[in-house]
Design brief:
Elements lengths: L2 E5 L3 H12 L3 E6 L6 H5 L8 E2 L3 H6 L9 H6 L2 H10 L4 E4 L3 E4 L4 H14 L3 E4 L3 E7 L2 E7 L4 E3 L2 E4 L14 H8 L8 E3 L3 E3 L3 H5 L3 E14 L21 E11 L3 E3 L1 H10 L6 E8 L6 H14 L18 H8 L12 H12 L1 E8 L7 E3 L20 E3 L13 H16 L3
Parallel strand pairs: 1-2, 1-10, 2-6, 10-19
Antiparallel strand pairs: 3-5, 4-5, 7-8, 8-9, 11-18, 12-15, 12-17, 13-14, 13-16, 14-15, 16-17
Helix pairs in contact: 1-6, 1-13, 10-12
Amino acid sequence: MSKVLVVGGGAAGMMAAISAARAGHRVVLLEQNEKLGKKLYITGKGRCNITNACDLEELFGNVVSNPRFMYSAFYGFSNHETISFFQSIGLDTKIERGQRVFPVSDHSSDVIRSLENELRRLKVDIKLNAAVTGLITEEGRFCALTMKSGERLQADACVIATGGLSYPTTGSTGDGYRFAKQLGHTVTPLYPSLVSIQLASDAPARLEGLSLKNIHASVSVAAPKQENTGADNGEKKKKTLKTGKILFEEFGELVFTSRGVSGPVILSASSKIAEYVPKYDLLVHIDLKPALSEEQLDARILRDFDEAKNKQYKNALDQLLPQKIIPVIIDMSGISPEKQVNAISKEERRKIARLLKKVTFPVRALGGFDEAVITKGGISVKEINPSTMESKLVQGVYFAGEVMDVDAYTGGYNLQVAWSSGYLAGSSIPL
C-alpha cells in the first residue's frame, strides 16, 4: 500500500482522494481552509450544479480550452457515472432546464457532506488548516511536501488539486501554479472566465436589473488597441484579427448590471473573449428580435406605428420592447422622442429596425477574479499525460481540476472536468 498526498479539498481534490483510497492507497487530504469544499458551497448560487446530463459529444463541445485532453478522463468517468456515483454515496439528484444536475435538496452543503462521509468511510486522513509551501523531488521523482507548519510529509505520490484564482476568498490563491513552476512546468496566461462584461456606456446604469430572454448576443473586433499597434521589439508579430471578426455568438439570456451585462450568454462570451480583451477594442452586439429579419421587423414597426399614429415616438414602442429599455433605444436612434410616429420617415423607421437587430456597446473590461466562476489558463496540458493526469516532467506528481489549462462553459461542465480529472488522477497512481 502506497501513501498518496492530495493537495486541495475542493471538488477535484476530494474526488482524487476518494478514487485513490478506493484503489487501495493510504490517502492524506490536505486543505488550507478550515473546512472542505468552500468553493463548492457557493456554486450554483448555493445549490451546486453538479454536472450536466447531456451526451458525451455535447459535453466535449462545452469545454472551451483543450477538450481533446479530457478524452480519457471523460470516457473513464463520464457525467452519467458522476450522477451514479453521487447516488451511490447517498445524494439524490434531479435534472433541470438545460440538463443541469442538482441535488434534490437544492443545498450544496449536502453535496459536500456526502463526499466527506465517503472520505471518512474510506479512512482518508483529512487535515484542515494545512497549508503546503512546496514540493520536494529527487532524481525526477516526487518524494515529499513541505508544510507551513514546518512539517515535511513524505509519500509515494502527490495530486495537485489546488484550484485556480477564481473566488480568492475561498482560498484559491494560485499555489498550484507556483508548485508547478517549481517543478519546471509551463503555466499559460491566466484570465478570469465566466464573468460579467463591463461596457463603456452609461446605458447599463439606466438598465440595471433588466433581463432580456431569447436574444442573440455576439462580440466582434473593433480594432487592435493602440498599445498593440506599435513596434514589437523584434518579436515575431502575431497575425492581427480583422475588424468585424466575430469572436462569439449565441442565443440566450442576459441581464444588465450597473456597469455592463451578465447572465448565461454573457458568461459564455467571457470565456471566449478573455484573451482578446487586453489586445483589442471589442464590441458587444445584441439582437433584440432574433426571430425576425430586418424586413419583418420593419413591417412590425410599421404596423405598431399605424395603430399609434397620433402618439409620440417615445410612447409607441411599448408593444415591441420592455418599458425600461425604450428611453435608451430612443436615444440611440437619434430620433426626437416627441416626434409624432406618423411623421417618422421610412428611412428613420428602417434605422430603428437596424438598431433593434444590432444594439451595440463598446467593451471596457471583463469582471475580475473576485467574481470569476473559473480561471482560464493554467498548467499546460502538453506537459500532463492525458491518460493518467501525471506530470510528464516529474514522476509521481498528478494534477486535477481548475489548476490545469482546461475550462468550460457554465452549466455543470467545469465541475465535470473536476470530477473526471480527479477520478482519473486518483485511480491512475500505481500501488
